[in-house]
Amino acid sequence: MTLLPWQADLWQQLNDYKKQNRVPQALLINGAKGIGKLNLAEQFAISLLCEKPDSNGLACGNCKPCLLLKADSHPDLIKIYPEELGKAITIGQIRLLLTQLNLKPQYNSYRVIIIHPAEQLNNSAANAFLKYLEEPTERTIVILVSNNLSIMPATILSRCQKFNIQKPDKSTVIDWLRGQNPELSLTEAETIHRLSNGVPFQALDFSKTETMTMRNNCFTAWLEIGTNVQQPAVIAEKWHKLQISQLLEWIATWMIDIIKCKYQINIVSLYNPDFKKQLDYLAQKIILADAFKLYDLILISKQRSETQLNKQSLLEEILIGWYRINQTNN
């Protein structure tokens, strides 16, 4: 694991805390999904546990704690994730954690807790964890990693030192992406950067052939609903098994591009220039007011998708809305 190039300033700040022996007992690392927050949290956790970090504060990789960390068996690093993808972090998990925290750290440095994604603590779990934050145990650092601060309890937020990771600039993402995938041409990397909205790990995922194929297939289905070839419920049933956050991001860019095509904006500003012909056709069929209403629904759905809401119902609502605005104007 290496430090990501766009995180150097934040790393310096974290390393300064460590040098000055002022590490906050609760850190909250926040930013867009796919921007490398967990990578930063784990790097800092490892550096806190390492016996011989280098001059930049990065773990040596060779001391006993580092070897334990590589084997995922260090007793003073505890990671709390949802037990099932998309589910909540439960009160049972937090109770078990609190039992562990009643014991002293086994080594002489810190004990580090990573909770990710922190916004998926359910109400009972959040309340139990809040009580711990009010009376933390010795030499224990909590790192909360969040994709969405707006749904986290204010009482927890107020007890954390916040670190916000911003999206890196275009050239940084493209250089990193081509370093990860040397076969990408500059033009391909620029297209992927645009499609991923500049989010580095989404861009890396987009660079994989199967992801681009899935995106193209989903757009074909979206087009077929708009042209009355497919029914919304049928497509929603197929789509609810896909990664909902990525799917909603794609749908949002399609709607933005349709609105841009309605205004006859230049192709270079489109998220999906490879779909320009189809987008122009769809733009001719709809009324702008309807398009903006549907786009608002998509944005609301992106927020709701972080909750325990039924994903198929959420997709059906969007796809029925898309079907209707095309039927209205045929």
Question: Can you walk through the features of this model?
Answer:
There is one protein chain. The protein is 54% helix and 8% strand. The mean pLDDT is 91. The protein has 2 domains: 161 residues, P-loop containing nucleotide triphosphate hydrolases (Rossmann fold, 3-Layer(aba) Sandwich); 121 residues, Zinc Finger, Delta Prime, domain 3. Helix 14 runs antiparallel to helix 15. It has 330 residues and is an alpha/beta fold.
Summarize the structure.
The protein is an alpha/beta fold. It has helices spanning 8-19, 37-49, 64-70, 91-101, 123-134, 154-157, 170-180, 186-195, 200-206, 209-226, 232-239, 244-262, 276-285, 288-304, 311-328, and strands spanning 26-31, 77-80, 111-115, 140-146, 161-165.
Topology of this structure?
Blueprint: H1 8-19, E1 26-31, H2 37-49, H3 64-70, E2 77-80, H4 91-101, E3 111-115, H5 123-134, E4 140-146, H6 154-157, E5 161-165, H7 170-180, H8 186-195, H9 200-206, H10 209-226, H11 232-239, H12 244-262, H13 276-285, H14 288-304, H15 311-328
Parallel strand pairs: 1-4, 1-5, 2-3, 3-4
Helix pairs in contact: 4-5, 7-8, 8-9, 10-12, 11-15, 12-13, 12-14, 14-15
